[in-house]
Amino acid sequence: MVTFKKYSPPDKGEAITLADGKLEVPDNPIIPFIEGDGIGPDIMSTARRVLDAAVKTTYGNKRSIVWFEIFAGSKALKRFEELIPEDTFEAIRHFHVALKGPLSTPVGKGFRSLNVTTRQTLDLYACVRPVRYIPGVPSPVKHPEKVDMVIFRENTEDVYAGIEWPQGSKEALRVIEVIGDELNVKIPEDSGIGIKPISIRRTKRLMRKAMEYALIHKRRSVTIVHKGNIMKYTEGAFRNWAYEVAKEEYGHRTITAKQLAEEYDGKQPEDKILVNDKIADDMFRFVLMRPEECDVLVMPNLNGDYLSDACNAQVGGIGVAPSANISDTMGLFEAAHGSAPKYAGQNKVNPSALILSGTMMLEHIGWDEAAGCVTSAIGKAISQKKVTYDLARQMEGAEELSTSGFGDEVIKNMS
Ligand code: NAP
Hints:
Elements: E1 17-19, E2 22-24, E3 30-34, H1 40-59, E4 66-70, H2 74-80, H3 86-95, E5 97-100, H4 114-121, E6 126-132, E7 148-154, E8 164-165, H5 170-183, E9 193-194, H6 200-216, E10 221-226, H7 232-250, E11 254-256, H8 257-263, E12 273-279, H9 280-289, E13 296-299, H10 301-314, E14 322-326, E15 331-335, H11 352-364, H12 368-383, E16 386-387, H13 389-392, E17 399-400, H14 403-412
Helix pairs in contact: 1-11, 1-12, 1-14, 6-7, 9-10, 11-12, 12-14
This protein binds NADP nicotinamide-adenine-dinucleotide phosphate.
């Protein structure tokens, strides 16, 4: 049994365990959650209430989630005088699945992002972001119903590795000197320095996750999104290594664009997934103009950060954008948005992104029926135009609800 230094896990419920790489989920799993900063408390209390109601509606008294609060960010600082106690990592490792509210990060100074630290410490290497249209959600594009893609964003390296030094620091000056002396490359002395590592192992394991997802969910294509024309040995290499995985490990189930044209006369066989690639800037155009051709997208960290927000804008924006951080043994589910501090404590923002991240969590533990119950109830509330401010301001005749009021409405729509 795991022992925590600062936390007391609930005395009810059982831990999810792992056997032969598969989760074994009891009927009353203990699931840790981090409330989060800013709007975190508002959306987390509503999301947990909605998820509990869906589990109860679907399984009656047979199943229930036993929530276990763990801490990070301002609440952790207040209680334990540290931003993220080791117990938080230990709890996620031990219980395998957790739900997380957004955590604030200062810009350009102060501490490093707790979100990035968590993903790196736990090696949650795949950030999975489904982007799908919920009918009724206001959209800036003509055919949002054509959008149904899943982004696999690398979560542990690239410029997010946190290897950087401020302009004028002795480290930055030393790097500039070494690169100048030993590699004969001149960098202006008044530069700040950041390093962008992209490795074979981390690229390949991400591509495997994307391929497995595409096969299980019978998707039609996997597109590698990169800026390899400019950053040849990082993003270009990412592209090449991803193709290697497709060819060497999934060759019997995949075809390339070249094979499609030359060997299949442009007609994709039902049992083969098309693996192709696109330069990142062109991908921004492509997702807007030909979204129906975008399916599973796999990319380095920074591309994924930008592209997922842009894709989400087509289907209602960040308030309805879920996300999961996955490793081979753990899943940490969180909204794609941040802590929106200007709305903190106002019971105003949209809880859907966190609720939908919770449905990804339910699917992850195999409780698909409860996940379906939540998504259908959210769809019903939105189609009745009972929504939070972010959607109300784009919809004619909508009734604007608070965060908790929207949660109540979703629960009312469960059956
Ligand atoms: P943000 O918190 O995502 O908020 C940006 C804007 O998005 C908000 O002003 C609001 O737009 C809209 N928005 C966000 N959440 C919403 C919701 N639930 N419902 C409706 N609208 C929502 O981004 P930010 O202001 O750049 O970042 C704030 C803090 O969050 C920073 O400290 C950042 O580091 C952190 N952050 C954390 C995570 C994470 O925990 N994973 C992710 C991203 C950012 P309007 O102003 O138009 O209403």
